[in-house]
């Protein structure tokens, strides 16, 4: 079992535990805001299942039908998570509107808050693990799950504050109003996850700092070549795809050109872990003005 798969499985277990605690908190209080928090935990469990399958599929090696691997499966999981978050937010808004029209006092609010606080602490600890390990493993599904859990922690804290204010002031309308705020925050979180995932599905180029690193490696390590041009990059899960044309002097033999490519590939692999590199060697008359110039050395 891969490290990413173990973490995805852990997310499912944590999600089920937290869902049980938050459902209990809602049951003992009847709070619409706590109901919204519990509903978001149902989404957490659903997305943890989706992430588990996505991480497992992404780990499958390349085959004849998928020569570039299965890494994009994780982006589909993240998009699904975003869609489920949006659906949950709409359900919360529906429930909150009914409570706004007829607000009522809560049952055992302090007990419910304590239960919910314990669930929130579990979520906070786990979201930190998801974000740190997801980034280290370059897993979009785990990072998306971590961001969602962090949003859940923030909304849980907001819910607690709203209920405490309602208890102190007697304004029970604050309970459904807090649920509305939670729903709007969830909507924003879902949109951010969908937007980030779509960039991967649409083969967006690597960030500027990574691109600059790639260009610097080519310029310094391709000694013996003239220039490199038509550099293209994209990312899919943990893998960064890099391809470009390398111009070599006409008198170079195939073996010499191949040695230059090997040197550049090794340097790129060290600078950009899990890179998939394709280099197309061309003669001098194929040189272009827009290119990475390689100093003579």
UniProtKB/TrEMBL annotation:
Entry keyword set: Cell membrane, Membrane, Transmembrane, Transmembrane helix, Transport
The record describes its membrane topology as: Multi-pass membrane protein
Q: Name one GO cellular component term.
A: plasma membrane
GO aspect biological process, one term: intracellular zinc ion homeostasis
Where do transmembrane segments lie in this chain? 7-29, 41-61, 73-93, 113-131, 151-171
| Subcellular location field | Cell membrane
| GO molecular function terms noted in the UniProt entry | cadmium ion transmembrane transporter activity; ferrous iron transmembrane transporter activity; zinc efflux antiporter activity
Task: Give yes or no: UniProt keyword Cell membrane.
Answer: yes
Q: Which domain of life is it from?
A: Bacteria
Q: Where is the Cation efflux protein transmembrane domain?
A: 11-202
Which InterPro entries would you find in this protein's record?
A: Cation_efflux (IPR002524), Cation_efflux_CTD (IPR027470), Cation_efflux_CTD_sf (IPR036837), Cation_efflux_TM (IPR058533), Cation_efflux_TMD_sf (IPR027469), CDF_Transporter (IPR050291)
Query: Domain Cation efflux protein cytoplasmic, which positions?
Result: 207-284
Does the keyword Transmembrane helix belong to this entry? yes
A Pfam family it matches = Cation_efflux
Q: What is its main location?
A: membrane
Query: PANTHER family from the entry?
Result: MITOCHONDRIAL METAL TRANSPORTER 1-RELATED
Q: Which NCBIfam families match?
A: CDF
Record family assignment: Belongs to the cation diffusion facilitator (CDF) transporter (TC 2.A.4) family.
Protein's UniProt name: Protein p34
Originating species: Algicella marina
